[in-house]
What we know:
Chain A is mainly alpha-helical.
Amino acid sequence: MNDSHSSNNHSQRPSHEDSSDSRLVEAHSQLAKNKEEPSEGFSSLPIVIVFLFCGFGFWAGVYLTRNAGGFSANTFDLDAPRLVADSGPKVFEADLAKGEKLFIQQCAACHQANGLGVPGAFPPLAGSPWPLGNDERIIKIVLAGLAGEIEVKGAKYVGNMPNIGAGLNDAQVANIVSYVRSAWGNNAEAVTDVKVKDIRKAIGGRGQYSPKEILDAHPLETK
Amino acid sequence: MSQDYSSRGSVSRIDASISVPVRTFIFSSLLWLLVASVLSLIVALKLQVPSFLGECPWFTYGRIETLQRNAFIYGWASNALFALNLWIMSSLARFELKSSWLPVLGGIVWNLTLTYGLIQVLLGQLNGFALLEMPKEVAPAMVVAFLFAALWPAVAFARRPTGNVFVSQWYIIGATFVFPVITVVAQLMLLWCPTLGVMQALVHSWFYQNLILLWLGGSALSAVYYFVAKESGRTISAYYLATVGFWTLFLFASWTGPATLLGGPIPVWLQSVGVVAALLMLVPTVITAVNIFGTLAPRNGIAQAWNNTTLRFVLVGAISFTLSALLNIVFSTRSLNALVRFTPFGQAQEHLAIYSFVSMVIFGAAYYILPRLTGSFWPSAKLVHLHFWSCAAGSLLFVVAGLTQGWAAHGRTDFAVSALPGLLAASLLLVGHFAFALNALGMLAADKAPSNRRSY
């Protein structure tokens, strides 16, 4: 049943037999009507496939009920219900793994995943005194942004960092900041969500800091 | 069956009736292919030497890359698929086109509009949506041009002499109806009366996935089925599954959009639906693989296919389709997707789909169609070989480039070094495309006055 029309193995031969197309359509229509006959080398593959597909369908249903957040238009994060359930009056502990994930999503586009920034464009965070020492400086910059000329490790940068933290919650900011303060050889203590909350409340919905303003409030600590 | 061929050579009446529009489409697609290949080389060079042509705003990366992508998809692939769809459908449905000037007119308007839109892009008039970058006034003109140029397969299908239908015909009809619908809806919701916020990203992802998977992919799949059956002389194995493959592809592909926005600020149930749809794409992928490879595998069919110019290209295309679909499925799972999100891995995967799959299938089809249309031989067999090998190597390297760049984006290696395979790939493809264009243009030029043959 597999050789219903003549083969033509020389694609460069310039001839186009009109009738072969009709035969092709006819032969396949017959196939579609007759299905496969068990006598002619019946293959079990299609049946296995059908069972597999039913399995997929079942899995899809289960996956959707478990991962659809109740089909609510206001659920944006799969972890959200679990966070709510866990959030008792317990002490906040910075989660560096979450911090790293958030850093890659939110910060690495400019500061790079290795924290070294891009020379001449984006200042490094690794080994820079800016994120270290007093944690209020970096929290404020993350919350409100920083615009203007700064000097980091002897190089000048004219930066324009947006208020990344304004779109994140207190715990997320605390995780990112704690990650930055501990990654790539940086060695400063973690920060808590309560601290972020207090600072956010204190500075209000303000615009970007200028370098002078932030350094007057929190001068860089020299080692 | 009628064997009355027209006066000259062995060009059939059907082929003669659609000769002018098919030539118009193939000729335009060739020009766009060359334009896109040169632009692709410039883009790859810019990744190596960012200052290359950097003085002139016309040649900044954003504009050139946009230009390249639009010229490739709307200029090369779409024009070529107009030709393929029309030719395959006319052959299968025994359709003789009476008013061939209508699709020619559509093709001319399509290409002029595209040229205008791309010049606007070059001048800096870009929209922020991939493949909808051209100014909004271009959109309606392109939809109208599409209807004139590409709706003829539907007419052919409606007038087919018998009720029998081959799977290629479903794919062509599906793809032909998808394009105008998604373009009109996306342009209304993104450019003319923009929806708010997150809805834009959702609409765009829906448009993009439909365009790539259904308009380009669906049309190319029809050619895969047709040429595998036709050139191997075999019937499609497990043919009755093909219906399921067709419907599941068109059902699930439309829903995969949100899976490209995983982790974004869209409601989590939409993301999950996208993930499920993306994973269920396994159904059409497995079915097409069983159909195509099941047909070619027994009785030394792969070796025969390898010795046949058309089937060799189509085979590479079919393998690439399966591979790209599998990659898409695996990396739509939440945890793996987080690894490759925002990296050039996505480009590698897309390249596998629109170049290694769609374009290779178009090449294979052109090697079959053009001789039958012109009644003459390909001028140079050497150029055919050069074309195949440089394109096969180039497209493989492009995928490698996406992977190395993705690795570099994780901060593991130096980016400029990682982009080197891309430069090499772009050069190889340029060589291959020039070889193909030289051959094809030589053939079209040698065969003068096609209008003589239409007097039957």
